[in-house]
Amino acid sequence: MSSNSSQNQVSVAYFGPAGSYTHQAALEKFAKLDNVTYNPQTTITDVFTFVEEGRSIFGVIPFENSIFGSVVTTLDRFVKSDVQIVDEIYLCVNHNLLSKFKFESITKVYSHPQAFGQCQNWINANLKGVLHVEASSTSHAAEKAAKEPNSAAISSSVSAQLYGLDILVKDIQNVKDNKTRFFIIRKTSTTIPTKNDRTLLLFTVDHRKPGALCDSLKVFKDHNINLTKIDSRPSSQRHWHYVFFVELQGHKDEPEINKSLVELNDFCESLKVLGSYQNLKPQEAHNN
Ligand SMILES: O=C(O)C(=O)Cc1ccccc1
Questions:
Q1: Together in a domain, 58 and 182
Q2: Where does this protein have coiled-coil stretches (predicted)?
Q3: CB 137 less than 6 A from any atom of ligand 1
Q4: How far apart are CA 125 and CA 231, in angstroms?
Q5: Which domain holds residue 149?
Q6: Into how many domains does the chain fold?
Q7: 62 CB near ligand 1 (under 6 Å)
């Protein structure tokens, strides 16, 4: 977020409680501002609602992880929302096994499903017979584990400090270089093209028509627009009907992108632009 000299308070809702990876993403993104109020929310849905109701200007939510993929709660909530993505941040995510108890005495481990997924290999090898309990976030998992005998949490080192747990095993995620991408949302779009932007779209097509998805995606080929992510989720309107999330290179206010969106609309039953934002994807050494 660019520095802001105004005295106005900036309010930021994030998926918490304190110590979550989303909290760390929010602190890093807004670090340059000294007039920020942080509003921790228990669920991703609550972050959306807080922003929609104008109770926070910005919201910070996890979007996808390099090992475990999309955060489906975030995708599903976008379907029902008119908020706009205005910025992004990628964070290195290192998970740890935290507890107040000896490793041998642990019978229950709390975490967020994303963290369980990202640590599957280590869990399968090391936590046989230990009960997995889903928590609303990794920091909430740490909070719970701190209060219950023989419990542990898969969570961050920040949560270990905050909730008074020991780090029993460090860096238990499947790969060393594990990253999560977070979005910054607000009620209206405020971004201007930077020549290195991405745009996320959400659309539905008529499933009964052969080639409907192909026709819609061909618009981007025709305009020489590169796609960077595609995903689909059940639409929640009808059984076996899906919404498609497509991310492309470019900003919605660039003429070529704008033209492609007008054309795309002809192939869609519904189309929503979820936002355009500067591409902040870190350069990878081995691919890209
Ligand atoms: O639970 C958290 O701490 C979150 O912010 C969501 C999440 C969970 C696991 C990895 C990255 C983000």
A1: yes
A2: none
A3: yes
A4: 31
A5: 96-169
A6: 3
A7: yes
